[in-house]
Amino acid sequence: MIQGSSGALNSGITGIYTYQVAATTGTVLNLSRATYPGQLSTPTINKGGLPINTTDPYKVQILIRRGLGDDNEHAKNFEWVCGADQELAVAQLYTNVLQQNYVPPGDKALDMTKEYMPMTYGGRQLHVSYKAKQGRLDAVCPETWGIIETVEPSLYDFGDGVTTMPVPANDGTGTTTYRTSSIFYYHSFLNLFNANMKAAAVLSNCSVPSVTS
Description:
Layout: H1 16-19, E1 27-28, E2 31-32, E3 44-46, H2 56-68, E4 79-82, H3 84-101, E5 120-121, E6 124-128, E7 137-140, E8 145-155, E9 165-170, E10 176-183, E11 186-194, E12 201-204
Parallel strand pairs: 3-12, 4-6
Antiparallel strand pairs: 1-2, 4-7, 5-6, 7-12, 8-11, 9-10
């Protein structure tokens, strides 16, 4: 949670789940979605609890091209962001094909499981975060994202260029005393922005593979 924020939704650093929303109401970047119909909404495919498949990347590509135009560079440069659950779902697309169509040669069974799961999906980079929402893959175009920076990350100045101070202690007498240790703080004033919310798409409500059975 960002110091000074309430901890409520949208009160801290904005990110994927703030900008990549299939909505026509509300505001984003202090702009009313209703005033700019369709331009501030990210196309979404609701999988309805079904697993991802091998054609979903093409569907996402179609949605982005439909919104931006086929010649727009952003339509070609998106990457994936997802949680470990959908990383496993991508890997299962591979293992299912092996199990159904491949008979290994020789008289010994082969190891049919690779050491690592895929690093791409539909030929595009797959970025996995354990903090990402389950059941969701986000197609993100890095070129449309940036940082709004009012104060760059730096040491906090307590005054007159002083960046450290002794730690105050409460001795219970009402007199201010100080410990022998010192403290310093880093601070910044920044946020993230997405300049083109249509240069993206979302696969939502995807089936979540079980890792316990």
